[in-house]
Amino acid sequence: MNKLLTISILLFAIACGNIDNSKLDPSLLPESTGKYGEVLVVVDTLYENRSSGEQLRKIFNKAMPGLPQEETMFRMSTVAPESFKSILKRSRNLLKLNVGKGRKTDIAIERNIWAKNQLMIQITAESDEVAARILKKNRQTIRDYFNQEEIDRLHKQFAKKPEKDLIEEIKENYGLSLLIPPGFLMMQNTEEGFWIKKEKRLGEHQIIQGISYYSEPYTGDSLFNKESIYESRNRFTRKNMEGSRDSSFMVVYEPYPAKITEQNFKGNYAKTYRGLWNMENDFMGGPFFHFATVDTVSNQLLHLDGFVYAPKFNKREYVRELEAIIKTLKLSN
């Protein structure tokens, strides 16, 4: 009883900001708060309306690529330093901007200061101009840090309750490992590949998340080109992902310019495509996230593709969840 009381007092002190958490056992920290994709920025109102504030908005309010309606990459909110206390200190994603004469320029990445699974980026500068310059130079790096942190949190969440039977079926039939959360069902399972689906309803509206997998012999780098990626994707979806109407099937919506990114994935070259899909001879459509990498053991180009159908709803976090699942990929040849 005394131990429980001590922990309760500690947690209350943490929430009120009356204790140096960096010296605490991390297991005693409370869970971080906030939704996926939210970032709390601690910044003096004086600088919020100057150059550094403008750069902060450019970092977090940039449109997420590959979505049919514009959504920002993150949902940013701000708080003045004197109001940054209590429950706000438990926010999952924090960026703290410290500006003042005589301050030494610095960028620090800190985790679990006031809560578990918390990421804070602290930027210190002697003036608004210097702070703005630092923010501008590190725009994409800051976005990548927060995005990767959200992906890592999703991985931890998936691991708590994995869809074990489906995971084992995929591993046995295709020699690869994916960490799949609850709710996904196998829709198609052939020698060519598979696709799985998670479906739910919010009110009268249907929401679908799907992941497909297929491979092809790796014959050269040209297979990573947009034309080749689209051709192989359309070939698989035309045959395996038919719509409810007769003669309807999924294809890439090519008029939309996809966002293409090169990546180093666990030491292997990879390329991602963020674009839109639609149903030929039907009215469905939405965003997709396509991931391609080479399995050097079997010399195969592996394709993993996530798609979302969620009319009437924002789609950013549904896509992020699929990206997180896809990036749990482990080859097990």
What does this structure look like?
This protein is α+β, with helices and mostly antiparallel strands and 333 residues long. The protein folds into two domains: 2-158, Chitobiase, domain 2 (2-Layer Sandwich); 162-331, 3-Layer(aba) Sandwich (Protein Transport Mog1p, Chain A). Helices cover 29% and strands 32% of the residues. It has eight helices and 15 strands. It has helices at 2-16, 45-48, 51-60, 128-137, 139-160, 164-174, 226-240, 316-326, and strands at 38-42, 75-79, 93-99, 106-111, 119-125, 176-177, 185-189, 193-202, 205-217, 249-252, 259-265, 268-280, 285-295, 300-309, 330-331. Strands 7, 8, 9, 10, 11, 12, 13 and 14 form an eight-stranded antiparallel beta sheet that branches. It has a five-stranded mixed beta sheet with strand order 2-1-3-5-4. α3 runs parallel beside α4 and α3 crosses α5. The radius of gyration is 23 Å and the shape is elongated. The termini are far apart. The model is unreliable at 1-20 (pLDDT under 50).
Q: TL;DR?
A:
The chain is of the alpha+beta class and about 325 residues long.
Characteristic key phrases:
eight-stranded antiparallel sheet, Protein Transport Mog1p, Chain A, 333 residues
Calculate Rg over CA atoms.
23 Å
Oligomer: single chain
Low-confidence stretches: 1-20
CATH topology of the largest domain: Protein Transport Mog1p, Chain A
Strand content bin: 25-35%
